[in-house]
């Protein structure tokens, strides 16, 4: 299980890609509020070197799996499933208290 995400299309901004991928994979309409962090460790994805730009945001709608996500559900911090894909546990650990640590408001 992992967080919604995907790839930036040619000509697309990272912010637009994040909103689009959230809608495609979860059915949620997302408004980004802050940049949480950029994750670029070469070992974070065994398939190939990827860079993730992670945002905090607000969502509207009911979660429903779509695109390449079989399902979409909401979890509280204490109820996160295990294991999570790739380095998503590290990212979500960063998210805990993110309002205090988020570096870049949008």
What does this structure look like?
With 106 residues, this protein is α+β, with helices and mostly antiparallel strands. Helices cover 24% and strands 21% of the residues. It is built from 3 helices and 3 strands; from the N terminus they run αββααβ. The protein has a 3-stranded antiparallel sheet. The model has no long low-confidence stretch (mean pLDDT 80).
In DSSP terms (H or I, runs of 4 or more residues), the helix count works out at 3
**What's the count of strands?**
3
Shape: globular
**Rg, Cα atoms, Å:** 13 Å
Main sheet specs: 3 strands, antiparallel
In what range is the share of β-strand residues?
Answer: 15-25%
Oligomer: single chain
Kindly state the mean pLDDT as a whole number?
Answer: 80
- Give me the strand/helix succession: HEEHHE
Terminal Cα span: 28 Å
Strand order of the largest sheet: 2-1-3
Model regions low in confidence, pLDDT < 50 over at least 5 residues: none
- Helix content range of the residues, please? 10-25%
Structural class: alpha+beta
Architecture blueprint of SSEs:
Blueprint (H helix, E strand, L loop, with lengths): L13 H13 L2 E11 L12 E9 L27 H8 L2 H4 L2 E2 L1
Antiparallel strand pairs: 1-2, 1-3
Key words describing this protein structure:
3 strands, 24% helix, 106 residues, three-stranded antiparallel β-sheet, 3 helices
In short:
The protein is α+β, with helices and mostly antiparallel strands. The chain has three helices and three strands. A three-stranded antiparallel β-sheet has the order 2-1-3.
């Amino acid at each position: 299980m992992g967080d919604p995400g995907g790839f930036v299309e040619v000509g697309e901004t990272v912010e637009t890609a994040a909103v689009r991928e959230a809608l495609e994979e979860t059915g949620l309409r997302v408004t980004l509020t802050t940049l949480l962090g950029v994750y670029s460790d070469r070992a974070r994805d065994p398939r190939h070197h990827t860079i993730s730009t992670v945002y905090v945001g607000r969502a509207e709608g009911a979660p429903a799996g779509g695109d390449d996500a079989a399902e979409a559900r909401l979890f509280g911090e204490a109820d996160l499933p295990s294991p999570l894909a790739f380095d998503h546990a590290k990212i979500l650990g960063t998210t805990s208290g993110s309002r205090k640590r988020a570096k870049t408001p949008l």
